[in-house]
Amino acid sequence: MKKLGIGILILVLLVVGAGLLFREQIGERLFSRAVETAVTRDVIGDLPDGINVVLCGSGSPLPDPTRAGPCSAVIIDGKMFIVDIGGGAVRNLGLMGLNPGAIEALLLTHFHSDHIDGMGELMMQRWAGGGRDAPLPVIAPEGVTAIVDGLNAAYAADAQYRIAHHGAATILPTGTGGEARPFSIPDGQEEMVVYEQDGIKITAFPVNHKPIAPAVGYRFDYKGRSVVFSGDTIKLPSIAKACNGCDLLVHEALNAEMVGTMEKAFAKAGRKRLAKIMADIQNYHTTPVEAAETAKAGKAKMLVLAHIVPALPLDYLEAYYMKGVDAAFDGPAVLGKDGMLFSLPANKDSIERGDLR
Prior knowledge:
Elements: H1 2-21, H2 23-40, H3 43-46, E1 50-57, E2 71-76, E3 79-83, H4 89-95, E4 103-107, H5 113-116, H6 119-129, E5 136-141, H7 144-154, H8 156-166, E6 178-183, E7 192-197, E8 200-206, E9 216-222, E10 225-229, H9 237-243, E11 248-254, H10 256-268, H11 272-280, H12 288-297, E12 302-309, H13 318-321, H14 325-328, E13 333-335, E14 340-345, E15 352-355
Parallel strand pairs: 3-4, 4-5, 5-6, 10-11, 11-12, 12-13
Antiparallel strand pairs: 1-2, 1-14, 2-3, 7-8, 8-9, 9-10, 14-15
C-alpha cells in the first residue's frame, strides 16, 4: 500500500513537471484550439426559428461585477435587434458568440446614459467587425438624432483611421456610424408600430419614467410568439395591456427596501448627496413585486427581471431581492443575469432556457 502511494506521488510529480517543462507548447496548442472553436462557433445559426432573447446586460448604473449595463438582444430569423446598449454589453455580445454583423437595428427606450453609453462601440463593431456597408439604424423616440449625430462626429477620426489601415475593400466606408430613425407616438395613442418586415413586428408604447421623457417600452411579435420590454418605468397598467398574454415580459426592477437601506447608510455617513440620489431613484422605477403584479395582470407566461438595482454581488442576496415575487405572480419569475437565453420556438407554447456565458 505504501509503495502504491509513493508510485502515485511520483506520477503526479512527473505530470506536473512535464506541464511546467512544456507549458509553452501546451499553451500554443490550447490557444489554437480555442481560437478555432471560437471562429467556427455559430450561436445565431443554431437558434430555433422563433423569438430568441439574450440578456447582454442585466445591470444598472450602480457598479456590479457580474452585470453589464442594460441590454437585450432579440434574435429572429438570423436578424439581431438590440434593445438598449449599456456599458460593457458590447463585449458581452462577443463573449456570447453573437456576431455584431447580424445586428439589424438598435432600439432605445430612453436616453439615460446607462442605456446609451455602449452605442459608439456597438456601431464600430457592427461596421468594422461585421463588415456592414450601411450605418446602424437607431430606432428611438424624438431626440435620438442629436445623440447619433454626436456619436458620428466623435467617431469620425476613428473611422478614417480604420479605413486607412485596413483599406476600403475590407472596411467599407459607407457602413460607418449610425442612422437615426426617430418616432413620436401621438398624444393619446397607446402604441405605434416602429418596424414591420419579414413577419417581424415591433411596437412601441409610452411608459412613465418622469422627468425623463420621452420613454417607451417595446413589444416584439413573430410567428405567434411575443416578448415585451418595459423600459425604465413606474408600475403601469399600460404595460400589462401591452403584454396581453405575452410569452415573455422583461421588466425592470428596483428593490426599494434594499435601496432604502443604502439611503440610510449614506445619510448616517454624512454623504447627503448620495443619500438624496438613493431616495430619488425609488420614485421612477418598479419594485420586483410590482413587476410580478404587472406580469399577473398581463397574463405573461414568464417574467424576467432586468436592470437590477441595487447590485447583487453575492448569489445569497437573490432570495431577499425576490421577496414577495412568488406570492404576486404564479408563473415562473427569473432574476435576470448576463448571458441568459430564452427561446420561444415559432408557433409553440414552450419557453426554452439556456446560457451563453
